[in-house]
Amino acid sequence: MSKGPGEGTPDIEGVLFDIDDTLVDLETAMGRTLHHIAGDAFGHLSDDDWAEYKRLFTTDPQGHYDAFLSGQLTFAEQRLRRARHAQAAFIADPLEGEAAHRWTSAYEATLPLHFRPYDDVMPLLDELQARGVPYGAVSNNVHDYQRAKLDRSGLSRIRVLVGIDAVGVAKPDPAIFHEGARRLGTDPARTLYVGDNPAIDARAADAAGLVGVWLDRRAAGSPATSGASDAPEAGADEAGTAAEGLRRITSLDAVLQFLPSFR
Protein backbone atom coordinates (compact mmCIF):
# COMPACT_ATOMS: atom_id res chain seq x y z
CA MET A 1 0.00 0.00 0.00
CA SER A 2 1.37 3.44 -0.96
CA LYS A 3 1.96 6.14 1.60
CA GLY A 4 0.16 9.46 1.26
CA PRO A 5 2.05 12.77 0.95
CA GLY A 6 3.46 13.88 4.27
CA GLU A 7 2.86 10.57 6.01
CA GLY A 8 5.75 9.89 8.37
CA THR A 9 7.74 12.71 6.80
CA PRO A 10 10.03 15.10 8.74
CA ASP A 11 10.09 18.80 7.99
CA ILE A 12 11.62 19.08 4.53
CA GLU A 13 14.56 21.45 4.01
CA GLY A 14 15.30 20.80 0.33
CA VAL A 15 14.17 18.86 -2.73
CA LEU A 16 16.18 16.79 -5.19
CA PHE A 17 14.78 15.46 -8.45
CA ASP A 18 15.57 12.80 -10.99
CA ILE A 19 15.72 14.36 -14.48
CA ASP A 20 14.62 11.98 -17.25
CA ASP A 21 10.84 11.46 -17.29
CA THR A 22 10.60 13.36 -14.01
CA LEU A 23 11.54 16.91 -15.01
CA VAL A 24 12.22 16.42 -18.73
CA ASP A 25 9.82 14.47 -20.95
CA LEU A 26 12.51 12.26 -22.42
CA GLU A 27 10.16 9.52 -23.57
CA THR A 28 8.28 11.92 -25.85
CA ALA A 29 11.54 13.44 -27.07
CA MET A 30 12.88 9.99 -27.96
CA GLY A 31 9.70 9.04 -29.79
CA ARG A 32 9.64 12.23 -31.85
CA THR A 33 13.31 11.81 -32.67
CA LEU A 34 12.82 8.23 -33.88
CA HIS A 35 10.04 9.43 -36.18
CA HIS A 36 12.07 12.37 -37.44
CA ILE A 37 15.15 10.38 -38.39
CA ALA A 38 13.36 7.33 -39.76
CA GLY A 39 14.13 6.58 -43.41
CA ASP A 40 12.12 4.90 -46.15
CA ALA A 41 12.74 1.51 -44.57
CA PHE A 42 10.22 2.43 -41.86
CA GLY A 43 7.47 3.49 -44.26
CA HIS A 44 5.58 0.21 -43.86
CA LEU A 45 5.17 0.47 -40.08
CA SER A 46 1.63 0.72 -38.77
CA ASP A 47 0.74 2.87 -35.76
CA ASP A 48 0.94 -0.23 -33.58
CA ASP A 49 4.35 -1.07 -35.05
CA TRP A 50 5.59 2.42 -34.27
CA ALA A 51 4.35 2.15 -30.70
CA GLU A 52 6.16 -1.16 -30.27
CA TYR A 53 9.34 0.14 -31.91
CA LYS A 54 9.43 3.10 -29.54
CA ARG A 55 8.60 0.86 -26.58
CA LEU A 56 11.50 -1.48 -27.34
CA PHE A 57 13.89 1.45 -27.63
CA THR A 58 12.78 3.39 -24.56
CA THR A 59 12.29 0.46 -22.16
CA ASP A 60 15.56 -1.28 -23.11
CA PRO A 61 14.47 -4.85 -22.30
CA GLN A 62 18.00 -6.19 -22.87
CA GLY A 63 19.49 -3.96 -20.16
CA HIS A 64 22.04 -2.03 -22.22
CA TYR A 65 21.69 1.13 -20.11
CA ASP A 66 22.51 -0.90 -17.01
CA ALA A 67 25.61 -2.13 -18.85
CA PHE A 68 26.58 1.51 -19.40
CA LEU A 69 26.11 2.30 -15.72
CA SER A 70 28.33 -0.64 -14.76
CA GLY A 71 31.05 0.51 -17.17
CA GLN A 72 30.65 -2.32 -19.69
CA LEU A 73 29.47 -0.01 -22.51
CA THR A 74 29.91 3.63 -23.42
CA PHE A 75 26.82 5.83 -23.49
CA ALA A 76 26.86 5.84 -27.31
CA GLU A 77 27.24 2.05 -27.44
CA GLN A 78 24.28 1.37 -25.18
CA ARG A 79 22.05 3.65 -27.23
CA LEU A 80 23.09 2.05 -30.52
CA ARG A 81 22.48 -1.44 -29.14
CA ARG A 82 19.02 -0.40 -28.01
CA ALA A 83 18.33 0.91 -31.50
CA ARG A 84 19.57 -2.29 -33.11
CA HIS A 85 17.32 -4.41 -30.93
CA ALA A 86 14.27 -2.22 -31.58
CA GLN A 87 14.86 -2.05 -35.34
CA ALA A 88 15.54 -5.76 -35.75
CA ALA A 89 11.88 -6.51 -35.14
CA PHE A 90 10.76 -4.41 -38.11
CA ILE A 91 13.45 -3.98 -40.77
CA ALA A 92 15.89 -6.42 -42.35
CA ASP A 93 18.91 -4.15 -42.78
CA PRO A 94 21.20 -4.33 -39.73
CA LEU A 95 22.23 -1.10 -38.06
CA GLU A 96 25.96 -1.52 -38.61
CA GLY A 97 28.92 0.33 -40.11
CA GLU A 98 28.09 3.51 -42.01
CA ALA A 99 24.37 3.06 -41.37
CA ALA A 100 25.04 3.03 -37.62
CA HIS A 101 27.18 6.15 -37.89
CA ARG A 102 24.48 8.00 -39.84
CA TRP A 103 21.78 6.94 -37.40
CA THR A 104 23.83 7.98 -34.36
CA SER A 105 24.71 11.37 -35.87
CA ALA A 106 21.09 12.05 -36.80
CA TYR A 107 19.82 10.98 -33.38
CA GLU A 108 22.34 13.08 -31.47
CA ALA A 109 21.55 16.14 -33.58
CA THR A 110 17.78 15.74 -33.35
CA LEU A 111 17.05 14.61 -29.79
CA PRO A 112 17.97 17.91 -28.08
CA LEU A 113 15.52 19.74 -30.34
CA HIS A 114 12.69 17.92 -28.60
CA PHE A 115 13.71 18.35 -24.96
CA ARG A 116 10.84 19.90 -22.99
CA PRO A 117 9.97 20.08 -19.29
CA TYR A 118 6.64 18.71 -18.14
CA ASP A 119 3.95 21.33 -17.56
CA ASP A 120 4.07 20.86 -13.78
CA VAL A 121 7.80 21.57 -13.45
CA MET A 122 8.06 25.36 -13.68
CA PRO A 123 5.14 26.12 -11.30
CA LEU A 124 6.69 23.86 -8.66
CA LEU A 125 10.16 25.36 -9.03
CA ASP A 126 8.63 28.85 -8.82
CA GLU A 127 6.91 27.90 -5.56
CA LEU A 128 9.99 26.29 -4.06
CA GLN A 129 12.03 29.36 -4.95
CA ALA A 130 9.42 31.68 -3.47
CA ARG A 131 9.52 29.68 -0.23
CA GLY A 132 13.32 29.64 -0.12
CA VAL A 133 13.46 25.86 -0.44
CA PRO A 134 16.67 24.81 -2.24
CA TYR A 135 16.34 22.29 -5.04
CA GLY A 136 18.56 20.35 -7.41
CA ALA A 137 18.88 17.16 -9.42
CA VAL A 138 20.63 13.80 -9.08
CA SER A 139 20.82 11.77 -12.28
CA ASN A 140 22.08 8.41 -13.54
CA ASN A 141 23.96 10.03 -16.37
CA VAL A 142 27.06 12.19 -16.58
CA HIS A 143 26.95 15.81 -15.47
CA ASP A 144 27.76 17.56 -18.74
CA TYR A 145 25.19 15.63 -20.78
CA GLN A 146 22.45 16.32 -18.23
CA ARG A 147 23.54 19.94 -17.81
CA ALA A 148 23.04 20.48 -21.53
CA LYS A 149 19.68 18.70 -21.37
CA LEU A 150 18.43 20.89 -18.53
CA ASP A 151 19.60 24.06 -20.24
CA ARG A 152 18.01 23.04 -23.55
CA SER A 153 14.77 22.34 -21.69
CA GLY A 154 14.72 25.82 -20.17
CA LEU A 155 15.78 24.52 -16.76
CA SER A 156 19.08 26.32 -16.35
CA ARG A 157 17.73 27.58 -13.01
CA ILE A 158 18.55 24.13 -11.59
CA ARG A 159 22.14 24.84 -10.56
CA VAL A 160 22.76 21.90 -8.23
CA LEU A 161 23.28 18.89 -10.46
CA VAL A 162 24.97 15.62 -9.51
CA GLY A 163 25.80 13.10 -12.22
CA ILE A 164 27.32 9.65 -11.96
CA ASP A 165 30.77 11.10 -12.60
CA ALA A 166 30.58 13.19 -9.41
CA VAL A 167 31.17 10.32 -6.99
CA GLY A 168 31.81 7.42 -9.37
CA VAL A 169 28.59 5.55 -8.58
CA ALA A 170 25.01 5.52 -9.84
CA LYS A 171 21.66 5.22 -8.13
CA PRO A 172 20.74 3.22 -6.10
CA ASP A 173 24.10 3.70 -4.34
CA PRO A 174 23.55 5.98 -1.31
CA ALA A 175 26.66 8.05 -2.07
CA ILE A 176 25.11 9.81 -5.05
CA PHE A 177 22.05 10.84 -3.01
CA HIS A 178 24.25 12.04 -0.16
CA GLU A 179 26.29 14.15 -2.57
CA GLY A 180 23.10 15.82 -3.78
CA ALA A 181 22.06 16.69 -0.23
CA ARG A 182 25.59 17.90 0.55
CA ARG A 183 25.51 20.29 -2.39
CA LEU A 184 22.08 21.55 -1.40
CA GLY A 185 23.37 22.08 2.12
CA THR A 186 20.55 20.07 3.63
CA ASP A 187 20.30 17.19 6.09
CA PRO A 188 19.69 14.02 4.03
CA ALA A 189 16.94 13.00 6.48
CA ARG A 190 15.14 16.26 5.65
CA THR A 191 15.73 16.12 1.90
CA LEU A 192 12.99 14.98 -0.45
CA TYR A 193 14.01 12.94 -3.50
CA VAL A 194 11.45 12.67 -6.31
CA GLY A 195 11.81 10.33 -9.27
CA ASP A 196 9.82 8.26 -11.75
CA ASN A 197 11.44 4.91 -10.93
CA PRO A 198 10.04 3.35 -7.74
CA ALA A 199 13.10 1.16 -7.15
CA ILE A 200 16.18 3.23 -7.96
CA ASP A 201 14.63 6.59 -7.13
CA ALA A 202 12.10 6.40 -4.31
CA ARG A 203 13.09 3.21 -2.52
CA ALA A 204 16.81 3.82 -2.99
CA ALA A 205 16.46 7.36 -1.63
CA ASP A 206 14.65 5.99 1.43
CA ALA A 207 17.41 3.44 1.91
CA ALA A 208 20.00 6.21 1.68
CA GLY A 209 18.28 8.10 4.50
CA LEU A 210 16.46 10.65 2.34
CA VAL A 211 12.69 10.94 1.92
CA GLY A 212 11.91 9.08 -1.30
CA VAL A 213 8.86 9.84 -3.43
CA TRP A 214 7.74 7.92 -6.49
CA LEU A 215 6.34 10.14 -9.26
CA ASP A 216 3.95 7.80 -11.09
CA ARG A 217 3.06 9.92 -14.12
CA ARG A 218 1.52 6.95 -15.91
CA ALA A 219 -1.22 6.81 -13.31
CA ALA A 220 -2.06 10.53 -13.48
CA GLY A 221 -5.58 11.09 -12.24
CA SER A 222 -5.59 7.98 -10.07
CA PRO A 223 -7.57 8.41 -6.85
CA ALA A 224 -4.69 6.74 -4.99
CA THR A 225 -2.88 10.06 -4.84
CA SER A 226 -5.62 12.67 -4.90
CA GLY A 227 -5.68 14.57 -1.64
CA ALA A 228 -2.97 13.00 -0.16
CA SER A 229 13.08 8.38 -15.05
CA ASP A 230 17.79 8.28 -20.85
CA ALA A 231 17.23 5.45 -18.19
CA PRO A 232 14.43 3.10 -19.18
CA GLU A 233 11.12 2.93 -17.35
CA ALA A 234 10.19 0.07 -15.05
CA GLY A 235 7.56 -2.27 -16.46
CA ALA A 236 4.05 -2.21 -15.02
CA ASP A 237 4.41 -5.45 -13.02
CA GLU A 238 7.90 -4.50 -11.82
CA ALA A 239 6.73 -1.02 -10.82
CA GLY A 240 3.74 -2.39 -8.94
CA THR A 241 5.90 -4.69 -6.86
CA ALA A 242 8.63 -2.11 -6.28
CA ALA A 243 6.13 0.55 -5.21
CA GLU A 244 4.73 -1.24 -2.18
CA GLY A 245 4.98 0.97 0.89
CA LEU A 246 6.32 3.99 -1.00
CA ARG A 247 5.14 7.59 -0.96
CA ARG A 248 3.47 7.94 -4.36
CA ILE A 249 2.26 10.95 -6.30
CA THR A 250 1.06 11.37 -9.89
CA SER A 251 2.06 14.99 -10.46
CA LEU A 252 4.78 17.29 -9.21
CA ASP A 253 2.03 19.55 -7.85
CA ALA A 254 1.75 17.10 -4.96
CA VAL A 255 5.34 17.74 -3.88
CA LEU A 256 4.12 20.84 -2.04
CA GLN A 257 2.06 18.60 0.24
CA PHE A 258 5.30 17.30 1.74
CA LEU A 259 6.32 20.77 2.91
CA PRO A 260 5.42 21.67 6.49
CA SER A 261 2.93 24.45 5.69
CA PHE A 262 0.89 22.07 3.49
CA ARG A 263 0.44 19.36 6.11
Automatic annotation (TrEMBL):
Keywords: Hydrolase, Magnesium. Its cofactor is Mg(2+). It comes from the Bacteria. One of its GO terms (biological process) is small molecule metabolic process. The keyword Zinc-finger does not apply. This is HAD family hydrolase. The keyword Magnesium applies. InterPro entries: HAD-like_hydrolase, HAD-like_sf, HAD-SF_hydro_IA, HAD_sf. One of its GO terms (molecular function) is hydrolase activity. Pfam families: Hydrolase (PF00702).
